[in-house]
Amino acid sequence: MTQQEWAHRVAAVVAGELRRYREMRGLSAQQLADACARKGMPIQRSVIANFENGRRTSIGVAELLMFAAVLEVPPVVLMFPVGYETSTEYMPNEFADPYMAAMWVSGENAPVGEDDNYSATPLTLGRYLVLSCEAVLQTRDQLEIARRKAEEEAESLRRVEAEYDVAAHEYHQASKEMEAAREAGVPAGEERLQRLNAAYTNMQMALERKHQAGASKFRVTDLQESLDEYESDARDIIKEIRAEGWKVPAVGEELEYLLKEPESVVDRAKNLRAHRVRKAPDGN
């Protein structure tokens, strides 16, 4: 088998997937050609037809990217029949599950039967950073919701905490009375036992209500700890990328603070005070 024969087979797979997704989108070859032109790269209908029919046995990278953009699919699914076949020839006479082959192209793993040296690339660290940033954003949103809920529940929590304090005081008083009676050798008596049991029950019920009312408050604490961990992970990845001399992927304006060294507690307090001074009225 020659190198050209394998290249032709690769092109045939791409042609088949191109037809599959074109028809799935309800586009004719002419409509696909028109869409490519509107997007900035004219491709003749005859070129598309000849490629899909096997009369043309090659495709350029730019054409592949354009077709993928117009059909709104990842370029890699035009290369490998993910979800439609159980095996694909990703190298001459070397086969793998199409999904695994697609992951190889995207830099997520090595092809089947080969050593995994793909983790030592900017792409892998960049992917880890993206995942960490997604976790930061998601946790920040959850934290904001939990804070609002905790603020709404604050009054209820104060009321329940007061009820618990009263119930706990009554229980301790009843306990002291029982202990005093025991030390004096006086029988506890049914009334004292009932008072103690009732006080204990009330205290436990108040404690349960206290936990329920304070759930959002505890969740705020847990989410803040998680956010700190995710931010720390992201900063560690950024440091590793920079240590390799690579460019840090764009993290978006919301997360630009991760690109800087975190403020110390003292610096954060100083900056907060300075911010308040700038915002304070001049008094005139």
User: What order do the strands of the largest sheet run in, or round the barrel if closed?
Assistant: 1-2
Low-confidence stretches: none
**Fraction of residues in helices?**
55-70%
Given helix and strand content, the structural type is mainly alpha
Q: What tags apply to this protein structure?
A:
284 residues, two-stranded antiparallel sheet, mainly alpha, single chain
Topology:
Blueprint: H1 3-24, H2 29-38, H3 45-52, H4 61-71, H5 75-79, E1 88-91, E2 94-96, H6 98-105, H7 122-183, H8 189-213, H9 215-243, H10 265-279
Antiparallel strand pairs: 1-2
Summarize the structure.
This protein is mainly α and 284 residues long. Helix content is 69%, strand content 2%.
Describe the overall structure.
The protein is mainly alpha-helical and 284 residues long. Helices cover 69% and strands 2% of the residues. The protein is built from ten helices and two strands; from the N terminus they run H-H-H-H-H-E-E-H-H-H-H-H. The chain has helices at residues 3-24, 29-38, 45-52, 61-71, 75-79, 98-105, 122-183, 189-213, 215-243, 265-279; strands at residues 88-91, 94-96. A two-stranded antiparallel sheet has the order 1-2. Strand 1 (88-91) and strand 2 (94-96) form a beta hairpin. It starts with a helix and ends in a 5-residue tail after the last helix. The relative contact order is 0.07. The model has no long low-confidence stretch (mean pLDDT 83).
